[in-house]
Amino acid sequence: MIIDKPQDDEFDLVSVIKLIWSRKWKIAITVIVFAIVGLVYEKISPKKKFNSTSVIERMDSTELDKYFFYNDIIKSNKSEQIYKNKDIKDIEIKVKGRSESNPYPFLEISPQLLEELFIETIKNRSLFKKGIHKYKLLDASNYADKEKYEDAITKLASSINIIETIIDKELNRSYFSIEFSHYESEKWLSVLSFVEKSANSAVKKNLQDRFRASLEITKLMKSYEIEDIKKQIENRLLDYELKTADRLLFLREQAEIARAIDIAKNTTEIPAFGSQNTMFSKIQPESQFYLRGYEAIEKEIELIEQRTEADKISFIDGIIELEQKKRNIEQNQKLNRIKYAFQSSPLAEGNDFTAASIMIAGTKFKYPTSLTLQIAILLGLIFGVLNVLIFSSPATNNSYKKK
How far are the Cα atoms of 126, 211, 282, 307 from residue 245, in angstroms, in the given order? Predict the structure, then answer.
């Protein structure tokens, strides 16, 4: 009978499991060491690329209340139309792609307008370029020359997406957000802070410049209107002088005729010559005005020649109305009230102003999933088990051999 001899190099699976279990703390320590090494490696390894999203928030109602007085004055100015000279054509102005026809183009402040100006300011990416350079999102030493460094900044700034998300199309509700991918999250937050502050300053300056331009346009229109009215008054005075000269010439001729035929007083009924304003109508020389008598005619000549400048106004149609219109324009205080309202608003120099805000603290970062820790734990487990199996003493191993 042949008896098989036990093989020394054969291990029972149960004995192996028992051996590993008996050395479990050793394996656990090995796994922990590998995990720590993995975490350290992850910490000192190059920055991981992130994807970030930052929402842009409109001005809230509390901030809008600061413009209440200013907006109220502007609305009043538009509805009442300070100067009512219909001969002056409206000035067409363009605001954010929209055309408005208004002789006094002062802008009302609204959250929508401020957001539009803010978005327009950051969309050209120039502020992002300055921020990227200021906070060294790119290392200039990695580029051959300044031109290539500037090109890299431009390319990086161009990768920034400003996206509009529609919430409700019918109600025209939406919000904007900034999306960006890079490796330096803290530096990116600094860039966002810089862009927000710079954009708000740029929008404020833009509105200040527009206000000053609107003010100058309105003042210029006011001076033009006054100038036109003055010219109308001058023309009417000139017309009066010309017509009066013609009248005096006619009266002197008629007086001479009356003297020649010795008609001192009006002794014959003559046709009516219309209203008192007939002195301004051209009277034909053949009219028999001399029949009034030279005494009346010469007295009229005397009275006409004695008229003062103030007296003449009473004999010129419409000149009093023109003087009133000119005085009303000169004394109008609407522009001063608008200037005062502007100075009391956040738009004035030195006052706090916010067109829109980037929700920097609420910026969401997404990083690619890291397998470093998982791999380190797996390697630690494998190494620990192999260490137990390989480096355990022969006596210990023999006790787990199956005969």
Answer: 71, 51, 11, 13
The Cα 95–Cα 211 span in angstroms is 13
Among 315, 336, 332, 335, smallest CA distance to 324 is for 332
**Contact of 196 with 357, CB cutoff 8 Å:** yes
**Cα separation of 356 and 56, whole Å?**
7
Q: Which residue's entry shows tokens 């190494």?
A: 383
Secondary structure (DSSP) of 328-378: HHHH--HHHHHHHHHHTSTTSTTS---SEEE-STT-EEE-PPP-HHHHHHH
Q: How far apart are CA 92 and CA 304, in angstroms?
A: 49
Architecture of domain 49-223+353-369 in this structure:
2-Layer Sandwich (3.30)
Summarize pLDDT for 139-195 with one digit per residue, the tens: 898 888 999 999 999 999 999 999 998 877 766 788 899 999 988 889 999 999 999
Handedness of CA 332, 336, 337, 338 (dihedral sign): positive
> Which residue spans of the chain are classified as CATH 3.30.1890.10?
49-223+353-369
What's the pTM? 0.67
